[in-house]
Amino acid sequence: MRTEDLIKALDADARNKAMPLRSAWWMATAVAAVIAAVVFWFTIGPRSDIMIAMHTMRFLSKFVFTIVLAGTAFALIHALSTPGASTGKAATWMAAAPLLVLVAVVLELFAVPEAQWGTRLVGSNMMICMGFIPLIGIGPLAIFLWMLRYGAPTRPVLAGAVAGLLAGGLAATFYAAHCVDDSPLFVATWYTVAIIILTALGALGGRLFVRW
């Protein structure tokens, strides 16, 4: 069978699912968000001064980064799970969250004395960050890997890695409500490390479980 015929066959199979693929992804993401919320609330919960923190730009900026990451990863993983779909535009948008973090880091370096850079980068909760973002995100990652089997990705390892980015963005959004380290230097370093852990697990899961 020619590659073009195979892609058409996979696309037809994906379209014949009981639920349209986009609707299925939205439902899966909603379920994943509920799972992440439950783990978050029954483990660490929001920070005690969250009502005060909500009035600060550094605190709110964390959610901008994580939500943009989750949103762009959602668009890309939907494209990757649809045979024959173009992924170029969605892949380009994946640069949005890193660029936003980069801009925030540059502004932080200008706003904060150099003597404080190291302290802000290390923060006070880096181990908690690297532990709880993967913990909150592992359930959503499992949901997203299962959803990839509902579709028909032709690049399962890449699709699994993007599933990890989506799970990481979702988990980091919840964790940001607990984290007292609001500096972009901290976010750019330790949030990234934690999300990379989920990305690596997603790539491995894609290799092992997402096959057709």
UniProtKB/TrEMBL annotation:
Protein name: DUF1109 family protein
UniProt entry keywords in alphabetical sequence: Membrane, Transmembrane, Transmembrane helix
Stretches that traverse the bilayer: 24-43, 63-81, 93-112, 124-145, 157-177, 189-210
Pfam families named among the record's database cross-references: NrsF (PF06532)
InterPro entries given in the database record: NrsF
Domain of life, per lineage: Bacteria
